[in-house]
Amino acid sequence: MVEKEFTFRGKKLEELKAMSIEQFAELCNSRSRRNLLKGVDKQFLEKLDKARNNPRAKPVRTHKRDMVVIPQMLGTKIAIHRGNTFESIDVVPKMLGHYVGELVLTRKRLTHGKAGIGATKSSTAVTARG
Predict the structure, then answer these.
(1) Structure pTM?
(2) How many CB atoms lie within 10 A of CB 28?
(3) C-beta atoms surrounding 104 within 10 Å
(4) Alpha-carbon 85 to chain mean position
(5) Where are the beta strands (DSSP E) in 1-130?
(6) 98, 91 in Cβ contact below 8 A?
């Protein structure tokens, strides 16, 4: 079975990387388009370029969860703040046009345990570590 080549709104990856941010914004949905047309953080993009050129670089850390993933970010590692820690992600083509905050959840998964002796039933909800 032949693997299908990635496209975003009919454009191939090479075409997307050659586009300017304004041209890419035209392909995104309206909310992402408005955010992109306001402007992109140039300092963050410069940090990503440095990290991309250095193979042993650590992921670039950021608190900006309202940033839209653009083609210039592809192939880099970004550490996104999730409230108390940073979670590292690899930026892949499927993430294009999405907000960075959508990719890292802020709440821990809830696991249910057994109530101890003398405990109330509501104390069975125990949060998972991690």
Answers:
(1) 0.80
(2) 21
(3) 18
(4) 15
(5) 7-8, 11-12, 60-62, 77-81, 86-90, 110-112, 125-127
(6) no
